[in-house]
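FAQ: What does the model actually see?

It sees only this:
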Amino acid sequence: MKQTTYNPSGHKGNQPVRVLSLNVTEWFENTYPQFKEDILEKAIKEKGLYEEIRLIEREEKIGDPAFVGSYKVISIEESFLSYLWSLSYSLVVLFDENIHKPQTIENYTLDSKAQHLINEALKLFDYGFSLMYNFNYWDKNLPNPEEFDPAANEYIEKANGVYLNAVNYVLLHELAHVDLGHIDNDILNSEKGIKTPESEIKQDEYHADKYAFERIMQGSDYLTNKHTVSVGIIAGICSFIFFSAEMGGGDHPDPDERLKIALESLDLEEEDNLWGMACLAFKLWSIKHKIDLGWPVKVDTYRDLFYLTLTRIEALKQ
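And it is asked to produce this:
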């Protein structure tokens, strides 16, 4: 039987991800023990960071997913959050049910329950992806964090953990722009009538990624566990892959490059599932943008497949 976790007096927003809105704030403020005192309160006092995260609830397609401007308010779109939960859920389910279990369970047979989970994950991914082009309300017959039967779908809670870490990584990236002085530098340049060079903007983005990675990993065994945090980081970065058929980042680093840096920073074994999950994201990207990556029939490790895919994506960029 489906249960609902929605509380209109405490949950802000119009989409099912609203039931996790308080968790988003809590996880951000408690990225690691003493984070609030060491980082947030100091950034508020010394750097002018606005105290609250601004949720943009407009019923519109995804525009600017998350940002922090000259007023130093960290803002994030509800449409983007809906997309991010959809992607987090889909990556977890599709990798586990369609890739990992068939490879690791002897004489594995895809039963009707597994096929249903896969079909629903694909439909949910399609919905999340569609938010880049048009806004539509979430069909609650699809998996969602607000109304679900925990006995029928054990992946909802897993997806929630991945999603919350993915959101936290994105928010920490935006916080970095304030805490590292990037916003102040942009303001100073603007006052002088100078446009911040693209090379400097890109360098700031690399620094913000590093900042976010280091802080979220500092609390990797605090709110959940290192594995869930790691999956969240990868899901968060993978969410930016789908915005461009050219895998371009504009004045940001290309998302495949950002993903490569994150995976290498995690110091993974060659067969770690995270390499495979990143490849799954590339596969979904190639399907959505109708791009043939020439997937090999067989590779030795997920890591090999990841780097082979990067090489082919780089060739496409050229």
